[in-house]
Amino acid sequence: MRTFDFAPLHRATVGFDQIADLMDRVLADNTTAPSYPPYNIEKTGDDAWRISIAVAGFSEADLNVEVKENALLVTAKRTETEADKARTYLHRGIATRAFERRFHLADHVRVTGASNVDGMLHIDLVREVPEALKPRRIEIARGDTLDAKALETAEV
Fold first, then answer.
1. Long-range pairs, 8-14, Cβ under 8 A, ≥24
2. Which domains does the chain have, with CATH numbers?
3. Which partner for 58 in 48, 62, 91, 98 could form a disulfide, CB atoms 3.0-4.6 Å apart?
4. Mind spelling out the 3-state secondary structure of the chain?
5. Cβ distance 53 to 39 under 8 Å?
6. pLDDT tens by residue, the chain, 156 residues
7. What pTM was estimated for this model as a whole?
């Protein structure tokens, strides 16, 4: 796999550390990337997404979803009951082993809800840009009005 050196970008930019970290994560050679459990990420609106994770065999009590520092962490741990221990399987293809899935969230993306339906854990996300960061129109003053205000301020 190719490797890229982003050192020149680090010397010429300020405040883009998150982008550099993201590029490092994406370009890293992760040959042992986890594939369990399978999941989908779908776009449900202009600023909305849904992550669906296959969690067959897990109840709501076995699942944990938390957000911490722009990261969504989904964990599951199923405790084996006495009834589970007493069963004899001829074939066991449904994996109920513990897992941890981490998703890195962009700025201003927050989790709005989670539900466990038909063996699928659905996590809804939405981007809410604060008013201070939204584009706004700046009123253009007439040139003589601006100069008069500047003169009044300078005289005081």
1. none
2. 1-33 (no CATH), 36-129 (2.60.40.790)
3. 62
4. CCCCCCHHHHHHCCCCHHHHHHHHHHHCCCCCCCCCCCEEEEEEECCEEEEEEECCCCCHHHEEEEECCCEEEEEECCCCCHHHHHCCCCCCCCCCCCEEEEEECCCCEEEEEEEEECCEEEEEEEECCCHHHCCCCCCCCCHHHHHHHHHHHHHC
5. yes
6. 566 666 666 666 666 666 667 777 666 656 566 788 999 999 999 989 999 999 988 889 999 999 998 899 999 998 777 877 888 889 988 878 899 999 989 888 999 999 999 999 999 999 988 888 778 888 888 876 555 555 565 555
7. 0.66
